């Protein structure tokens, strides 16, 4: 790993980074579970790093890095989602990829059926899926990934959510992602055009409709196209956190990578600074919305 640039080197001592609010504190928690680039030394994958990096939500944490200036707690994974995916449940594993029986019942989801469960099995490029491993993974190594990476991330996020709820009586959570521009090609629908932003609330179940519409309309006013729950609705994290009936609002934001990134080099495109500036306005609008809604929160 000594020949890798610093941002790609393993960081087993820091699987998750928590950026606290700066100045004003709001019940606003944001997390970027898929932007990590610190590739663990024990990955044992058979693919070159250049191809592996296509699984990253590259630079998402940088697009939103000033959220703490608006009163939010920002949480980011440093490890890559292709190693272990924080936006999956712990039992979302394909038993066929293991070298032995898992000690507890597994609950593989449709994501695992697609090869994109807790432990990814393939990388897609231009509609072609390439296997990530030429071996079975040991039960012990998957358990170690869960213990050292998945659980610390979930613990940090759960603590931030719990703190906001305990202090303010509610929370607004935004799950931050990016999406490859060829999503519909991968889905076998090449005639469809992907929006610049896709907002997901699991079909209206994880947040107040006014919250997701506010963000969508702000983005549209900046000239972006916006879709709702198509093709991404949100997965484990917003499904677990979002309980609007208890003033726990959670949604997912997916950004089309073509508007801010060179998808081959993973470097910022010429539009990066402009997108980042537009998202600053989204942050300001979100923060103001949360301030206004805080007066309606139940206090213990």
From TrEMBL:
<dbReference type="Pfam" id="PF05013">
    <property type="entry name" value="FGase"/>
</dbReference>
<dbReference type="GO" id="GO:0016787">
    <property type="term" value="F:hydrolase activity"/>
</dbReference>
<dbReference type="InterPro" id="IPR007709">
    <property type="entry name" value="N-FG_amidohydro"/>
</dbReference>
<keyword id="KW-0378">Hydrolase</keyword>
<protein>
    <submittedName>
        <fullName>N-formylglutamate amidohydrolase</fullName>
    </submittedName>
</protein>
